[in-house]
Structures are given as structure tokens and as C-alpha cells.
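Example 3.
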Amino acid sequence: LPCRAQPKKKKKVDVKREQAQKDRMKKKIKKLEKAAPEMIPIEDFITPLKYSDSKRVRSLPPLSAEETERRVLLLKKWSLFKQKQDKAEKLAIQTLVEAQQEALEELRLESEELYQAALRRDEGLFPFERQGPSYTPPLPGYDPPEGKCVDITKVYTQ
Amino acid sequence: TAAAPRPWKLFGAMCLLRLPRITQPLEKEEEEMAALMGQIELEKSHYSDHEMRKLEEEEQLRRRKESMYDDDEAPGKTVIMAQDLEEKWEKKLLQFKAAPRVTDADKNNTRTSLNRKLDTNLMLLVKQKIGNQELWLLPQAEWQPGETLRGTAERAMATVLGDHIQAKILGNAPHGIYKYKFPRAIRTEDNVGAKVFFFKAFLQSSDLSRADLKENFLWVTKQELGDYLKSEYLKKVNRFLLD
């Protein structure tokens, strides 16, 4: 007949111990969760220490008075140029809007139904994606060199 | 409900724009400013790793020439200097030939090609028969009941270019209008004149080889529109076109 060598240990003490352990773990987890999440450092705003070495400072001759004068005058010319450009852009946009309003008014005079159809939102328009212009047009038949791009950005988890 | 007989005929026209592929040349002020910005950035910067390496190697060379001692490194070892690297990169850059900004079509002024004037918008113009005149204008089609005006404009574009052209039409609303009265000879009570509603679209597909352009067509810039369009029509079209 199969029989035990030792009597079985009582289960109750083990169960209690295990439950106590679980509760302690849960309390620790709750404490960690309650703590505020760590801020993710913005790597662009932290200059690495090796770049604040004094040896790295560039040695250039100081600016002459004519140079500073020229710079100030250039900045003034630039602000005027930009102001004119901005005004021209705003005027162009205004004419565009006026032309469209005129067209819509004429359409309304013609037929209300077409007018309502014109006023409806165009769902397929946005999001609108477009490749911007480059300095030179794409070379026909250009074979770019092969290579692999390894992404080494650091990923932080909160 | 019986609609009152409208005296105006409706047309939908499509202004198809090919957007610029290269950047426009900088104005004089922009170039001067760009140079100044570069200079200021250089003045405010520190030396980079590559520049530090170059400076150290120059120091080493100078010291070696002055003291004239033998190399303490093994003579067989060839050290790549930063200067050599720079020269290698320069050579590689000079070997690359980019596509020209001024294309052949520019030089020959072939106005039917899309490769012309890559830094400005190009518009499609077709020669259509209006009344008994052959005129250059933006492709238009007469409105048929049952379709919206945008549909008319799309149909006009499809009749000229074929179905396979991808174009992004900017919204359901017309951008401009040209109203004209028929000449007295054909003007009647119900048929006073016509209203042409313009729609704008951006050309998405880059090659039109599959398009069957039957009629005479041209791709022109805003400045060149004056060579082809009549003055009243041109005035109205210019209002909704940006440079």
C-alpha cells in the first residue's frame, strides 16, 4: 500500500504566507504607480558637456564698424522687403476670395440647387499631401547608392 | 416645379495647374540675407569634431616639421588626415551631375511640353470652337441637367485629356466666373448669353503620355496667358490665379 513517510505539512500557514507576500507586492506596485511619471528629457535642449570646452571657441577677428553698419542696413532692407511681400500675399488672397464670392453669387442667381451643391464640403480634399519643390528636377534614370539606415534614437517610456 | 426659362447658358471650365517642381531663384535681398545669416551662424558656433581633428593634425604636422624627429609610429601605418577626407568628399560632389534647372523645352520654348518653366505654375489652354470662332481658352463644357458644375468641369477635363489623368480639384465651389452676352445676331429672349464657371485643379500624375490630346493644347504660365486669351476673359481669369 502506498503510504507517506512524513505527515503532510499543514496548508494553512503556507496559504497565509503566500497571501501576505501578494499583498506586499500589490502595495509596492500601488506606491510606484502613485509616484509622478518621470519627465522625458528633451535631448535637443541638453548640450553635451564636451561642446562647452573652452578649446572649442572659434577665433575670428572682431567685426569692424563698417561691417556692423552694413548689417544693420541690410536688416532694415530685409524687413521692408518682407513687409511688401506679406502685403502682396494678403492682397492676392483677398482678390481670390472676392472672385469666389462673386462666382457663388452669380451661381445662386442661376439655380439654388447648383449653389447648394457648390457649398457642400469636399470630403476627399483633406488631408492633402504634396511633394514640395527641390532645387534641381529629378534626374531620369538615377540609381541611388545602396545602404541601410540604422535608427539610433533613444526611446523613453514613462 | 417648372423652372423659369433661364436666359443664361451655363458652362463649367477647368483650370488645370501643374505645380512647380523646382524652387524659384532667390531675390537679391534674399540672397544677401541668406549670406548674412550664414555668417552670423558661423560666428556664434564652436568648432565641430571634424574641425578639431583638422586643427590637431595641422598642429602635429607643424610640430613634426619644426622638431624634425622621426615618426614614433610604425612607418608602414598610413594615417588618413581630415584634409584628405575633405578632398575626397569634394571630388565625389564634383562627379555628381544634377539634372539642369533650365530644360531643353525651355530653350526651344516648346509650349506644348510639361517640362518647361519648372519653377512656375503651368496652365492648360485648348483651342475650342465658340459660335463660329476658334478661340484659345480653358477647357470648358456645357452644363447638362443632372450633374453639378464640378462634374461639368471634370467632364471638360476628361474630354480634353482622357480618363486616366489624376487631378485634385480644390473643392466644390467655383473660383471665378466669366459672363458674356451673345452677339445680337443670335441673342433671343431665352438665350441672352453664357456664364462660364471656373474650377481649379492640381495635376497629380506626372506623365501625360497616355493622354490622348486631340485638340490643340498649350501649357502656359500666368504671364504668357495674355498672348492667347482675350482681354475680358483674361481679366476674370487673372483674378483667381496666384502668381
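Helices of chain B lie at 28-44, 49-67, 82-95, 104-108, 149-161, 231-239. The CA atoms of residues 53 and 59 of chain B lie 10 Å apart.
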